[in-house]
Records
---
Amino acid sequence: MTILVFDSGIGGLTVLRETRVLMPSVHFTYVADDKAFPYGDWDEDVLLTHVVDLFGQLIERFNPNLAIIACNTASTLALAGLRETYPDLPFVGTVPAIKPAAERTQSGLVSVLATPGTVKRDYTRDLITSFAERCEVNLVGSKNLAAIAEAYISGAAVDESEILKEIRPCFIEDENRRTDIIVLACTHYPFLANLFRKLAPWPVDWLDPAEAIARHALSLSEKGGLLSTSGSGEQNHREDVALFTSGNPEFAIRRLQTGFGLKVL
Ligand code: DGL
């Protein structure tokens, strides 16, 4: 079985990491659309067409049994279009974890940290209306964090004051309440979680949906009879691979793929 994990950059590796733990017998193909990175401020119509068209090529080349869109910015826009265009391929999306945040918050003040694209999507607004009506949900669109995460994970020095500037609007306080949960609604952000914790004005729960997405992918694979065992079988011997649409990821990014056990195509 092959699972294709897709993102605009390296953020989807945070989802791949969890999915592998649950499905060690599966072969993974990681695709980073780095030529088009960042997706965060693309025009919606153009991005939708781009992602749906790109998937046509990916399906033809890799023939996956299941695809994980490990990108909130793409999922909140293109999931429906992808499912409609490629009805034979099961898709697992990554969308802001607003429902679990609403269930867990004590203060009722929840923030969603995402790209500007994810923040403005109807999909995200609908999640709030459907699941978080009793909470105050503060949407924070960050222009720079995904790129900062790429730089950080490649080993470059990052300016902590820049990061603080991006996360500061997530922290809201009134007379007797303050934000207690921040949803990491971009798959790049878990790479920065340690810095977020260090820089946070007060401790909060940073919600990373990667494990839930992995569980969803496992359950869909089992239901669809895609796995011969429950996924805990023998380690697969085919090498997992990574494709970068630029065709030329820089050295640090290549090294990172090797660290994740992925051979860059
Ligand atoms: N990793 C993507 C997400 O989850 C966003 C990065 C980008 O701006 O392209 O939304």
Note: Residues 2-94+210-264 form a domain with the Rossmann fold fold (CATH 3.40.50.1860).
---
Amino acid sequence: MLIAVGTQEPFAMPEPTVRLLDRTPAPDDSVCRATDPVAIVIFGATGDLTARKLMPALFNLHRRGLLPERSAILAVARRPFTQEAFRAMMLEAVRAHSHIPPSPDEWERFAVRLAYYALVFDDASAYAGLAAALGEGGEARVFYLATDPAFFMPIIENLGRAGLLPAGDPAVRVVIEKPFGRDLASALDLSRGVAALLAEDQVYRIDHYLGKETVLNILSFRFGNAIFETLFNSRYVDHVQITVAETVGMEGRRGQYYDTSGALRDVVQNHALQLLGLVAMEPPAVFAPKEIRDEKVKVLRSLRPLRASQVGREVVRGQYVAGAVEDRPAPAYRAEQGVDPRSNTETYVAMRLLIDNWRWAGVPFFLRTGKRLARRTTEIAVQFKQPPLHLFTTVECVGDVCDISQAKPNVLVFRIQPDEGISLLFSAKRPGMLFQLHPVQMDFFYNQAFSAALPEAYERLLLDAVRGDSTLFTRSDEVQAAWEFLDPILKAWSGPKPPPLHFYEAGTWGPPAADDLLEASGATWRNR
Ligand code: BG6
């Protein structure tokens, strides 16, 4: 703006030093819409995962307009179904498992994209028909292996033989569900087999924990704020507790699978170690797939290896016996459908880990997971060291009854689920003439701070696979590093003198032996 002042030279108004922020609306999820045409081929289309997670996630992506205009879903399984029968089955699944049931119109528009193809996974001759059904190509292709892991390699090999996996073509991707192997040797075998036919950037190993909003928030919280990250190291942190506690058991349908797996393979190898990676990793140079995964791998490689002779001391395994969960009677694991009545499979694992790197040297990380525990809760609690001198008395009151207690440490809790959010525990002066401290809590709850619902993990991950973004998928060296750490535990458990299997009553917080793990560090589990 120019202002004429008398006869003098026009005077130029200086620009304001503080500029108002642009008033453009914040970008919404539609900027993540996939645009290139895509064919999504799901192997294992009649299985539990497809019904509970994949089909509802694809339907919701479609409903929100995030799938490309030209996208098709080809569902593949062994049993013959007519197109109508298969679509009706999927409609039931989506009604049962999607947070908003589909309207007839919405379903109609989705169902035209959905087709069924019957094929025996290990019958190589059947894949020419699949190739013909898929047509000429030209679109991106996502092959999703939601099958028993025994079929992973036969399917990949047969797709390769049928010319459906052009090596090195990043538009052709294979999504592999866990488990990635049963131990180090089988994981390496699988990796070698896959690498012979596919480039690493064509392989998307899915771990649905990495699609959870609150898991991703660990990175945003740590690296998007300045105040806490400076405290995340051995100088200030006393220990870290990672808990993945479930109240469910085998639900009448999972016993057969679970009995061949156990908690270590089912949750520790993947979800729990991913949480560890995110809370312990160094900041990546940029927020990009390679850099983020490099940092997570470094954490796994820094885990202090366990010798077989240490397993009994550092790792506790348990199995539930009959009890009551949330006031309902729960049978013993060995009485669950599909479980061997003499099974020694662990339904609970707790362990103490040390990360031998500059940041975390000497800080114990305690990790536990289990079925049929007292409460469903997944959280990471970072417990800080106490101040060097206790100047005040701490008092803890429940109602009007107060007790003098020990000074309470500061704890930062990432609540992954439920009650998604973050809490900070600290001490405040109790009102009154006395100088007494009382533990208090500062809370952030997602559902209070934001009006938008948290997206489903599978929705995000499926969309990423369709868009070719591998940031949230696990790389082969990451899988290998996790198995390298866990392999001595599996070996000790299956060896001639295995450490004991501790029993715990369903509905409790696990075997008391797990408490001893923390005792040496003067800590106790946060059972809440
Ligand atoms: C799966 C395990 O990967 O994760 C299940 O196979 C477990 O046993 C589940 O129950 C937990 O996932 P979430 O999302 O319910 O915490």
Note: The radius of gyration is 26 Å.
---
Amino acid sequence: MEAAKSALEDLGSWRRTHYSTDLSPGSDGEEVILFGIVASVRRQGAISFLILSDCKGLIQIVIDPKVGQDIAQKARRLRRYSFIGIKGRARAMDKAPRGVEVAPTELKILAIPSKDPPFDMFGRRVPSLEKRLDIRAVDMRRPQVKALFKIRDSVVRGIRAFLCERGFMEVNTPKLISSATEGGSALFPILYYDKEAFLAQSPQLYKEQLVGSFERVYEIGPIFRAERFSTDRHLSESTSVDVEMAYVDYNDAMDLLEELIKYVVRRSSEECGEEFKLIGVEPMALNGAFERLSYGEIFEDLRERGVPISWGDDLSAAQIRSALEGRGGFFFVKDWPTRSKAFYIKPKRDDPKICEGFDLFFGSMEIASGGTRVDSGELLRSRLIESGLNPISFKYHLDVFDYGMPPHAGFGMGLERLLMVITRRENIREVAFFPRDPSRLVP
Ligand code: ATP
Ligand code: MG
């Protein structure tokens, strides 16, 4: 062990000149410095063939003892999963992956693992998700998992680009809060100095407060929910894409959400062709408008077909599936019963039993919820009371409304839920870096 450690070298003055994917047959003769993990070692006589994996892809490295005894000796010590740097020349090679390989004249061994991961990092057999999550950082060195997170990154950058172009300002709202944002989902209590506080379940009220000055805001941030779920579509800590805008209503919010999803789906499929191949998925093509059904239509349809439901109930995944009769894809359900939605969703002026709220579904999975918001302080107070909440706990919020608020609407979308759809993963944990659920708080 000590001998192995002492053989390790420092980075020194070496700096990467290329990623593996920057090289092609046209790079023949170029001087390069590459870094990465040894994905495989194969020896043919005195020659060592390595596959080097960096964050972008794989490249073949050929170490020939004719270059020097020093490098040949080091190469013999190399084992799989070591971190190395190499300096040498690229050369075109038909038989190598991507038609190019590198013949190094110098090699630095930067780290030699003291143990092997509990699964083959570069193999085809997929270990169980639980086993992978136990050592998630190493799991994320697997090319297929890296591909998922590159798609995630492309989607997040797409959301930012789209909203920035539409004049939205990115904001940050507090995650340490003194009271619930709304009834319903359970909060994680924490100790805030000597007082009880909570982790925020949604930026809802703060993003509404911000439209009073900035008019168009969005936040991509964590939300915390202490529900004791046991599903494959919930996390205790997930990422919410929250959008709020002034002087519009829920129809505009649905339009924006639909355009946003179409934009990021298209952009990620253009940017991540290789990554979709790696995860074995054909990128989605979204043609046509998302259907907009009303709660009333779904309710009548379910009742006619004898599905038990009483007006005002939330729609379960099973009910949605039944109402859809095999229709897939994205669709909105709008005009929900006022009592089924949070107090801040605006009841319709001509029929206050129904509110201007909507959910976006993909199949039977909810992707986003939104609506026109209540903008009158007086109505907000009475909606709080009707929803069984205490207006005193919301004084900090109601105070703002006393100074007047513009009409506004928006939505909150689950980033990981959208990623499940785009990458066709059945389990939300696949698309979260370090997922948290009722039975997992590490790593
Ligand atoms: P669900 O009924 O699916 O639990 P919700 O209606 O409680 O969701 P909202 O409060 O409407 O969720 O939150 C907005 C969006 O955030 C949801 O549509 C969903 O995409 C996402 N989301 C909410 N809770 C979670 C969670 N625990 N894990 C992952 N995503 C979530
Ligand atoms: Mg919802």
Note: The longest helix spans residues 143-165.
---
Amino acid sequence: MTSATDPNKRITQLRTTIRKHDHAYYVLDNPTISDSEYDALFKELNALEVAHPELITKDSPTQRVGGAPIDAFVKVPHELPMLSLDNTFDDQEVEAFDQRIKKVLGSHSELEYVAEPKLDGIALSILYQDGVLVRIATRGDGRTGEEITAQGKTIGSIPQVLLAGSNYPPLLEVRGEAFMTLEGFQRFNDEARANGEKVFANPRNAAAGSLRQLDPRITAKRPLSFSVHGLGAFTPGSLADTHAERLEQFKHWGLPVSAEIRTVQGVQGCLEYARQLALRRDQLPYEIDGVVYKVNSMAFQERLGFVSRAPRWAVAYKYPASEQLTRVLSVDVQVGRTGALTPVARLEPVMVAGVTVTNATLHNFQELQRKDVRIGDQVSVRRAGDVIPEVVRVVFDERPEGATQIPLPSRCPICDSPAIQPEGEVIIRCSGGLVCPSQLKEAVKHFASRRAMNIDGLGDKLVNLLLDKGKIRDIADLYRLEKPALLPLERMGDKSAENLINAIRKSRQTTLARFLFSLGIREVGQTTARNLARHFKSLEALMAASMEDLEGTPDVGPVAATNIRRFFLEESNRKVVQDLRNLGVQWPDVAEQPPPSESTSPFTGKTVVLTGSLTNMTRSEARARLEALGAKVSGSVSKRTGFVVAGEKAGSKLTKAESLGVAILDEEAFMALLSGRTTEVRSDSIQIQPSLF
Ligand code: IVH
């Protein structure tokens, strides 16, 4: 029988293939097939298992998700206790730690340490028997934890089966941290907030709350990750003699290990690692609360042993907390581009994770009421990564007498138009539209922003100034600006005025997609704008479109369709659009710009690495576009990498590409190649064919 006809064989084949792709996607962050190809494999396996239920095994990829809810968590003892770490807070304390160890070991030379990020998550123990995951447990009190196998199995980066052919011990208990990425956390909370549901105070609570769901199907929907940092019980024999080498072994067995871990020499190496990582703390995709130093040699670790609940061979070095207490001085209401009224707490200045915070968002009035924040309250404030600082909670025990409640707004604080709260919506909005100076300011800022018309040098402050001084009254007025009108403005020299006029002039040449996005129609983000441009091909066709036509566009639902129609039916909007076109805003016909076919794209058949952030699209969009052109998108740079696309804040991948001589594209060059505006590439730079510009 061939595998095509033998379901057992095919099932085994599919499981192996899917596991390989899971590893590439979740652990290596380097998928080798598209989502749709993966889905097809998964569907095929599922269908075969439905037809042959007797062939279903616990470790099948289909069994990750959808286990039945449990009644309660079962307590399980840890074979070896799950210990904690002692903390240090400054360089002297780390030096004392190093001295202590050297003394015990009687060593005068520098010790080798492994320095690791201290992930702020939930410690888990994962047990493999003969390479198959058999149990996942929480730390609990260190001696006894709770079994959460069904919940933990839904985390994609935890392999259900160790990679075949590798020499793992028959019994292997790894330990590590389950966590939620900042992006996942924000997405989850944003959604919960929009639906008026419970939000989590921080990613750590979100990870804990997600794992504590009795129904694993709920856990499966939460964006959780995992990273191994140590070992529990194991059958002796095949494990290496240093911690660093053991981590390498874990990687070979398909387990996820942080890419930030380094082997360092002596205490100076430790301190330097902490300094370097602290500089990048804001850019890491997850939250860390410090770093951990571990003696690398296992022989030394054994000699050092433990003191009460912590090992003597390891220590945590804690960074300043990302949450601090301060007092609410007042609450202002900000008016966003779409009129959303957002309460913002003005705070007594406080240092949070190294930055002085004076304002923090309360997100919306429903949340303000739920948290019951009043003026004068002591509150806990949080900032992490690039996320806007937010008020997490009130310290009710510290509430002063006479703390003032904040009333719901009935009018816009800027233009005095009535505030409205559409049925079923959480957000209260100003009904003033572009009559509201605040909405107008935000609309102009959006119009000028990089992803929209990309007017270089027209930042938020300048937009405020232009509107406040009456130099412009709408977006079309930008194209009527002349140099003499700008010169009297604060800090506006001859040269900067000229640069601004030139940048505005240059922005007239745009694309239909950018133009549509820049209009700031609610629910029309970059992707929708692109789909609309592709679907309707001209502004005239879009402006004349019926609801049906609009809803026939990919990604456009009834809400977006209604907003688009409303926008173009409004006389003042039609006038601004017409003015913009009369003033020279133009774009090439969409029809004349077919997307480059696979064979003509310089990306076809190449491996491309994306690093840093792009302004024109998200990373997953960039990945999808590249894959559509037949490129392979990879997570790490090697000599075989065809291109590295370096966005803003590109990091070590860019440095590596430079050292290997790999072709590097900045965002502009990348966009040009994607759109097919240029096809010629040299290995050291990209060439743009001048005739196309
Ligand atoms: S080692 C015996 N390494 O921090 C060694 N722990 O404050 C125990 N943690 O319970 C842990 N990142 O949950 C270690 N790279 C790392 C860590 C780490 C986070 C957590 C772990 C532990 C807690 C101690």
Note: The chain is about 35% helix and 20% strand.
